[in-house]
């Protein structure tokens, strides 16, 4: 089982020793018996960036594995890398502008647009020739995303701590821009040039209706944090208090 | 938008949106062939269990876990509402060993739940896996703790994943599980919780017993999400303006 723990001197990314061979073997056996259908529906790997809504100077490279539920809706498992030992850092939902515009304003505030990162060549499908992906990108440029990050690996968390964080997308104005160095490093990894991709994507257009509450920070300078407050637990009639212990 | 019926018999037609066009499907198929999906291919196990909202035990949902063993101490799982092709990705769960859990700050422990009861009562199972192999996995799992967030409240009929992330909890003793839901799952997956309970009678929970700070709701304390507006760039905590708004 490949893992960062094997690399000499590499910083440990997850708490715990690597999975012992015997365990790994048992697990392989189980895997052969189970169909794992939902996770076989991922059709594309997207690499891009996201930033914490409450702390936008923290920018992370993300690896989205996306599955399309229908023409208007995709669901993504988001990881911190594209490797075997990648950490699952959250979930993103992507919807068409048609569905987005039907959301209540309070809900729209939690979503971000995708046009900028796509037209700038930040959003890429590693390994897929641009010409093949163009039609899909044209469609995605009109979509909105809602991304909950459950593992803040950038601050060194070796296990997921605290409540989930809402994430925002790269944009043309600070603090929404992605530093050149980050883009350069990513580009080198996949042997691509984002700037060149951007030129090829000049004809990609966004949604016609842009006056929404998405990218809320651009208009207000505000972001969101999630917290959990103590309330009385509601127990069903079938769950009397005697079952609490 | 069409309405969606709650519960496990969800069909993809209930989700708003056009059916996938042939052209879209063809493009995505080609991308799929060209790309590698290493993090996804590490998913090795499917576990079925139940979660309830950390502030409302009456809302119990079937949860299909697809898990990766990240290190000896950590599993990470994608949670779906069904095991089918059109399943909705509704959340994530992290599972850690007792030692890791015990080292967590007290403030963090309240987000976590124990797995001992779910395993020993037989309500947590691995569809398609023979008892002997399943029990090997259950032996370790019974000692662990989990942290789950759901993003899509399909049980209340949400046709899109709206609102803040919901903290979820797990069952801790008999009499809590919705009987109808239990019967339904057992029939659909052709399993018997009672039989599994007998098979697992000798399994043991956490070495130090279930920690009192886990399963926070057992003290009568539910945990409900709220969203606060803050400055989008961190300055100092004192400068952070907070305007609470409930979603």
Mean pLDDT of chain A: 90
The rough form of chain B would be described as globular
Q: What is the N-to-C order of secondary-structure elements of chain B (H for helix, E for strand)?
A: HHEEEEHHEHHEEHHEE
| Through-space gap between termini of chain A | 40 Å
Bin the strand percentage of chain B.
25-35%
Count of strand segments of chain B: 9
| Spatial order of strands in the largest sheet of chain A | 1-2-3-4-6-7
Give the C-alpha Rg of chain B.
Answer: 20 Å
How many strands, what sense, and barrel or not for the largest sheet of chain A?
Answer: 6 strands, antiparallel, barrel
Count the E strands of chain A.
Answer: 8
Work out the radius of gyration of chain A: 20 Å
Mean pLDDT value of chain B: 89
Note the run of SSEs of chain A as H and E. HEEEEHHEHHEEHHHE
Q: For the report, how would you describe the main beta sheet of chain B?
A: 6 strands, antiparallel, barrel
**Helix content bin of chain B:** 10-25%
As a percent range, the share of helical residues of chain A equals 10-25%
The unreliable regions of chain A are 1-9
Structure overview:
The complex is a heterodimer of chains A (245) and B (247). Chain A has 245 residues and is an alpha+beta fold. In chain A, 25% of the residues lie in helices and 26% in strands. Chain A contains eight helices and eight strands. The longest helix of chain A has 13 residues, at 21-33. Mean pLDDT of chain A is 90; it is low at 1-9. Chain B is α+β, with helices and mostly antiparallel strands. Chain B has one domain (44-245). Chain B has helices at 22-34, 38-41, 98-102, 106-109, 116-120, 131-141, 179-189, 193-199, and strands at residues 45-53, 56-71, 74-80, 89-96, 113-114, 145-150, 166-169, 221-231, 243-245. The radius of gyration of chain B is 20 Å and the shape is globular. The model of chain B is unreliable at 1-13 and 237-247 (pLDDT under 50). Chains A and B meet through helix 1, strand 2, strand 3, strand 4 and helix 5 of A and helix 1, helix 2, strand 2, strand 3 and strand 4 of B.
């Amino acid at each position: 089982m490949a893992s960062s723990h094997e690399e000499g001197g590499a910083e440990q990314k997850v708490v715990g020793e690597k999975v012992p061979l015997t365990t790994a073997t048992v697990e392989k056996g189980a895997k052969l018996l189970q169909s794992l259908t939902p996770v076989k529906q991922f059709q594309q790997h997207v690499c891009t960036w996201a930033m914490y809504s409450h702390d936008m100077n923290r920018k992370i490279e993300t690896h989205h594995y996306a599955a399309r539920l229908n023409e208007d809706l995709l669901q993504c498992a988001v990881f911190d890398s594209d490797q075997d030992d990648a950490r699952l850092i959250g979930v993103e939902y992507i919807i068409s502008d048609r569905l987005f515009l039907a959301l209540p304003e309070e809900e729209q505030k939690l979503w971000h647009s995708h046009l900028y990162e796509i037209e700038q060549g930040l959003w890429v499908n590693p390994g897929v020739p641009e010409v093949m992906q163009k039609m899909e990108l044209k469609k995605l440029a009109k979509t909105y995303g809602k991304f909950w990050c459950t593992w803040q690996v950038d601050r060194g968390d070796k296990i997921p701590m605290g409540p989930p964080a809402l994430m925002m997308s790269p944009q043309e104005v600070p603090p929404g821009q992605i530093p050149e160095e980050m883009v350069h490093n990513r580009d080198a990894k996949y042997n691509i040039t984002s700037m060149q991709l951007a030129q090829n994507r000049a004809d990609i257009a966004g949604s016609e209706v842009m006056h929404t509450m998405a990218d809320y920070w651009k208009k207000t300078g505000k972001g969101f944090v999630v917290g959990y407050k103590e309330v009385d637990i509601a127990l069903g009639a079938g769950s009397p208090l005697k079952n609490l212990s | 938008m069409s309405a969606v019926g709650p519960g496990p018999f969800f069909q993809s037609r209930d989700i708003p949106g056009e059916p996938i066009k042939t052209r879209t499907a063809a493009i995505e198929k080609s991308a799929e062939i060209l790309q590698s999906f290493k993090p996804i291919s590490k998913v090795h196990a499917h576990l079925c269990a139940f979660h309830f909202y950390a502030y409302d035990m009456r809302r119990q949902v079937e949860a299909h876990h697809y898990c990766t063993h990240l290190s000896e101490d950590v599993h990470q799982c994608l949670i779906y509402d069904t095991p089918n092709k059109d399943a909705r990705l509704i959340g994530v769960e992290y599972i850690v060993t007792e030692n890791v859990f015990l080292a967590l700050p007290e403030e963090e422990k309240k987000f976590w739940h124990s797995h001992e009861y779910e395993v020993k009562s037989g309500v947590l199972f691995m569809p398609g896996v023979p008892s002997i192999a399943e029990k090997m996995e259950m032996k370790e799992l019974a000692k662990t703790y989990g942290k789950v967030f759901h993003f899509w409240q399909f049980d209340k009929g949400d046709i899109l994943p709206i609102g803040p992330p919901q903290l979820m909890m797990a069952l801790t003793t008999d009499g809590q599980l919705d009987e109808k839901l239990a019967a339904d799952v057992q029939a659909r997956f052709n399993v018997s919780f009672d039989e599994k309970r007998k098979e697992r009678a000798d399994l043991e929970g956490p070495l130090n017993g279930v920690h009192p700070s886990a399963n926070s709701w057992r003290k009568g304390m539910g945990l409900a999400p709220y969203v606060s507006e803050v400055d989008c760039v961190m300055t100092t905590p004192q400068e952070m303006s907070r305007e609470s708004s409930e979603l």
